Amino acid sequence: xxxxxxxxxxxxAAAAPVHGWxxxxxxxxxxxxxxxxxxxxxxxxxxxxxxxxxxxxxxxGEVLAEAPAPPPLLVATxxxxxxxxxxxxxxxxxxxTVVQVGPASGLPFRDASFDLVTSRHPVATGWAExxxxxxxxxxxxxxxxxxxxxxxxxxxxxxxxxxPTSRQPERAVAAARAAGxxxxxxxxxxxxxxxxxxxxxxxxxxxxxxxxxxxxxxRHRPQLAALDRRIRAEGAxxxxxxxxxxxxxxxx
Length: 252
Hints:
It is a single chain. The protein contains nine helices and eight strands. An eight-stranded mixed beta sheet has the order 1-7-8-6-5-2-3-4, sandwiched between helices. The chain is 33% helix and 25% strand. It is of the alpha/beta class. The termini are far apart. Keywords: Methyltransferase, Transferase. Residues 54-140 form the Methyltransferase type domain.
């Protein structure tokens, strides 16, 4: 990729679609280590053992679509309109219903409706609503973004940042318990992410918008140019993603 001009790489990435939660556009251009717990496999196994499940902030439905044995009732929610259409197409084959919700709305379901609630990388976790829709003995299983994730990339675009105060696993545990749930599992991982060209950086920042809030290709062109020079000199740009897995159960 090094022989391609900076402007060409940036223009290509700025025009590429970013709907859904599929990262295949980055194949051959960027890599990120996977958490050791294997979230998609965990979810698939749980879905096979329940009768009713809900996936919150499903994105394009990519995780649910991998389930080989979906439950009789499978529902997903999504707030971003472009993702809703993607999720409905993706999840048709597993018989899931996709419900569009507001960005900060409650869950439009009756109390004690689901044996399992899942969510990968939720925007925010509504613990009280999750506890409400879980049946007694039901579980919430979620892979979440950890504090200071991709900080090296954030600071390359935005400059020095204060220490992270949000997305702390300890706060998630406290919030789950405050909602009446029992936390039965908490794991954390730091994962190496490698970008091989500046186009991969641009596309990633457009898709994962919380990495550099307010990112704009034109406004941040000087920072992108500096990243491009660094990648060409060093062969890649390395950042570190942080994730945690949390499982909480509604007491029977």
